[in-house]
């Protein structure tokens, strides 16, 4: 009912969107920093000026979702209020305040023949963002892609379609005010799922990378079907290893924070590994500290002596991202045992080691291949903002191009500029 | 006839190769630099020690190819002699001499909460290399991947299968001598084309990137069918733009070198663009200089006054990578015209501008999006060795991860190491 196009037009509509995005990307690639920032500030202002329209559209989305029997966390993610609008506008201004990565010289060196070679950042091109119910992704993703000189094609969930369109109207107004092409930020005008299929196929070469934002089933579909690169993580099955050399108070504070600060984010810890050599010292205090905060603890069979009466973990626990106040706990044979367990079960997102023994930390850092490894700090720092990157469009666990938080810098490519004085090759 | 496996076993054999490669990659990822270099030196020594076997195998390949009616450049690429063997061994030693990128800190910064974040290089994982007749690729690719801590699966052409296997035997001896897993460098034991299909499908997640080395039809197949990232260029349709501000002598030397030094390489110039405002000054001298070196010149209709009697270029010339002593020449309306033509026809590989006007150079560098842009230098410098990267496994025109020459550094990923003192997130 919200759709502006007929189903059988989806392919044609999407191809046209792709072509327009590519044309806009060419213009954005050479847009000066000041013009991009002017657009971003105008977008933030328009979001505030349009707040009544955006809130009205959002109320309709929320009402429709409730009619469809949706409730709970989903409505929370969907619902906007005045503070939410203000946060969106401030988020865009924060992106305007970031350094422009485009044109940055990443490396520069001279050759014996007198050539000077430099490697400078360029935009990636066209980013496709496929997301679910959070209306703010429309603004965050649009602004972040623009800052890095990329065009973006946004495909939001049908439940937040009215909100997304109202926000998109404000973004377009900002682009127009700065004289940038409105096609720089396009929103797919249909909720037909075939549109997602077209995006995953790459729109005839007019999408360079896809960023899915949403639950595991969305990300799984994107990862399995996409014919273009994807920046994503399927899950954050994050581990904490507490070594026998750890400080107990520090371990307690970090474990509780890593699990319980927010249980629903990808950087939340899901499995606690304790050095068998210090089980007596750590197991009971850490389990009790977690339980004090309301966490359900599922323990491996061989540590039941330290955790009588608790649920026993089975093999599925080591592969489960609870995203809830539940943790699995296991004894391992020191750092080697931790490395082995993490190597087997990790989603390559984020892992932490709590230890005072520097050899242990060195092995953890060297031998584990996850996007983010922390020493004596909470896994919940796995976040572009906490890394000082400003906004992030997501966290990637792949090893190609972007890994870890995907901020403005990760949305760029580069080219080589070679300066000569008449050199020819012999 | 050379195949060691039956056709119907190809899937099973390839999956097993993938698993072994992944296991080897885990071992290589933590192999110390000294061990990797010891393996490389042992490989080079083994290549020299086995030179009789390698040359005998190569003679059989060459004889079989001739029996199949193959001749000319193909045989040239296939045929090895004692100097070729020495060059392979020296190539491996040169890779041993390169800095090890693994573990390098690319960036490091502190956060206000006391966390220190560093970004360090890690191996990519498993590289699949699909190549044609050059036997040296077996050694070059194997050594380069090893240096960056990656396992490699090599699939050479059937015409060079005996040579590749003989070289591979030497590489395995080197790995064994250093105590590294022989599966670090595997060669596909069948010439069944289905094996390529299995590699392009990613071997159940056990290939991280594919590098095709060969002609356009091989690269095209890989690019269209691969379900994993590809580092490649389909073609090098390289342009030179001579601005009215150019120095004539410099332009002449560079244009002749860019086209004629070696006509069959991807960095050879294919189209010469001349500023219409200085056609009188440049057109005839540049055309005559090219013709003096034996180049066939195909000129655009509107410059026929400067090139009477030459072939007229048609629309197909602007999209043709001749890889031969042929060049297309066109007048354009200054730097804007050059940017427009290159934007329309470029393969995004390498382009050069010859100019003394810095505004012109700045626009060329800023507005053209190719992997390599040169000012007052020959396009034939588009090469990892010339860039000072040591060996290269190819040149990529994609914008994801690697772009331009793909050397040892481009075969790496990275991870974030975060060092704390007990930080938790508020």
Automatic annotation (TrEMBL), chains A, B:
Database matches in NCBIfam families: PRK00197.1, proA
Domain Aldehyde dehydrogenase: 15-291
EC number, UniProt record: 1.2.1.41
InterPro entries reported in the protein's UniProt record: Ald_DH/histidinol_DH (IPR016161), Ald_DH_C (IPR016163), Ald_DH_N (IPR016162), Aldehyde_DH_dom (IPR015590), G-glutamylP_reductase_CS (IPR020593), Glu-5-SA_DH (IPR012134), GPR_dom (IPR000965)
Involved pathway(s): Amino-acid biosynthesis; L-proline biosynthesis; L-glutamate 5-semialdehyde from L-glutamate: step 2/2
Known role: Catalyzes the NADPH-dependent reduction of L-glutamate 5-phosphate into L-glutamate 5-semialdehyde and phosphate. The product spontaneously undergoes cyclization to form 1-pyrroline-5-carboxylate.
Keyword set includes Cytoplasm: yes
Name under which the protein is recorded: Gamma-glutamyl phosphate reductase
Homology family: Belongs to the gamma-glutamyl phosphate reductase family.
Organism of this sequence: Martelella mangrovi
Location in the cell: Cytoplasm
UniProt superkingdom: Bacteria
Keywords: Amino-acid biosynthesis, Cytoplasm, NADP, Oxidoreductase, Proline biosynthesis
PANTHER family reported for this sequence: DELTA-1-PYRROLINE-5-CARBOXYLATE SYNTHASE, GLUTAMATE SEMIALDEHYDE DEHYDROGENASE
Main location: cytoplasm
UniProt cross-references to PROSITE patterns, sorted A to Z: PROA
Keyword Iron-sulfur listed: no
Catalytic activity, reaction form: L-glutamate 5-semialdehyde + phosphate + NADP(+) = L-glutamyl 5-phosphate + NADPH + H(+)
GO MF annotation list: glutamate-5-semialdehyde dehydrogenase activity
């Amino acid at each position: 009912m919200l759709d502006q196009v007929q189903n059988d037009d989806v392919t044609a509509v999407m191809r046209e969107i792709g072509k327009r995005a590519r044309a806009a990307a060419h213009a954005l690639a050479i847009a000066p920093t000041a013009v991009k920032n002017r657009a971003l500030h105008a977008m933030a202002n328009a979001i505030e000026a349009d707040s009544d329209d955006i809130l009205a559209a959002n109320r309709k989305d929320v009402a429709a979702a409730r009619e469809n029997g949706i409730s709970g966390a989903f409505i929370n993610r969907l619902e906007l209020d005045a503070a939410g609008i203000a946060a969106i506008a401030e988020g865009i201004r924060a992106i305007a305040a970031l350094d422009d990565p485009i044109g940055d010289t990443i490396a520069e060196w001279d050759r014996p023949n007198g050539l000077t070679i430099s490697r400078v950042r360029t935009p990636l091109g066209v980013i496709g963002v496929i997301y679910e119910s959070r209306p703010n992704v429309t603004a965050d993703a649009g602004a972040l892609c623009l800052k890095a000189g990329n065009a973006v094609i946004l495909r939001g969930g049908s439940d937040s379609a009215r909100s997304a369109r109202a926000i998109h109207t404000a973004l377009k107004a900002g682009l127009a005010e700065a004289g940038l092409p409105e096609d720089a930020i396009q929103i797919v005008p249909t909720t037909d799922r075939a549109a997602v299929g077209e995006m995953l196929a790459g729109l005839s070469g007019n999408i360079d990378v896809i960023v899915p934002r949403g639950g595991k089933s969305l990300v799984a579909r994107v990862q399995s079907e996409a014919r273009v690169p994807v920046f994503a993580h399927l899950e954050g099955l994050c581990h904490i290893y507490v070594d026998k050399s750890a400080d107990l108070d520090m371990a307690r504070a970090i474990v509780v924070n890593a699990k319980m600060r927010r249980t629903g984010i990808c950087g939340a810890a899901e499995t606690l590994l304790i050095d068998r050599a210090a089980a007596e010292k750590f197991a009971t205090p850490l389990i009790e500290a977690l339980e004090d905060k309301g966490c359900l603890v599922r323990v491996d069979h061989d540590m039941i002596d330290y955790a009588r009466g608790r649920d026993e973990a089975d093999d599925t626990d080591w592969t489960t991202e609870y995203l809830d106040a539940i943790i699995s706990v296991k004894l391992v044979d020191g750092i080697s045992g931790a490395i082995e367990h993490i190597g087997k079960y990790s989603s390559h997102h984020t892992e932490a080691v709590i230890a005072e023994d520097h050899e242990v930390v060195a092995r953890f850092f060297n031998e584990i291949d996850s996007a983010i490894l922390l020493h004596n700090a909470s896994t919940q720092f796995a976040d572009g903002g906490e890394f000082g990157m400003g906004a992030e469009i997501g966290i990637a666990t792949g090893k190609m191009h972007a890994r870890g938080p995907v901020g403005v810098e990760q949305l760029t490519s580069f080219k080589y500029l070679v300066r000569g004085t008449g050199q020819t090759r012999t």
